[in-house]
Amino acid sequence: MISALSPSSGVAGETVTVTGQDFFSADGRIVVRFGGVVVPTRCPDQSTCVVTVPAAVVAGAPPPAVAVTLTTDAGMSNALAFRYG
Fold first, then answer.
1. 67 and 81 in contact (C-beta within 8 Å)?
2. Does the pLDDT value for residue 63 go beyond 80?
3. Are 39 and 51 within 8 A, CB to CB?
4. For residue 56, what are the domain limits?
5. What is the pLDDT of residue 27?
6. Quick one: 68 exposed, middle or buried, by C-beta within 10 A (0-12, 13-18, 19+)?
7. What is the pTM for the complete model shown?
8. Which one in 10, 42, 56, 72 has a CA-CA gap of 20 to 30 Å to 19?
9. How many structural domains are present in the chain?
10. In terms of Cα–Cα distance, which of 64, 67, 72 is closest to 28?
11. Are 83 and 68 in contact (CB under 8 A)?
12. DSSP E strand boundaries for the chain
């Protein structure tokens, strides 16, 4: 479960810390997505992952917000909004 994004808004290339609980995957694979785009992810412990905000995937202006999710072998988390800008 994701409880917070810090910061919860920003621009492509920025680092965001995802916090929550149960960020454990028996197969070692933890995937974070911004609006469906898989992003580089580093998880130093079971409650924190550090990710890099991707470029917006729609042509033109970035969307005002995208859903951020985290997936492990146990399934997909809840979604929190990240705002571009």
1. yes
2. no
3. yes
4. 2-84
5. 85
6. buried
7. 0.90
8. 56
9. 1
10. 72
11. no
12. 2-6, 9-10, 15-20, 31-34, 37-39, 41-45, 48-52, 65-72, 75-76, 80-84
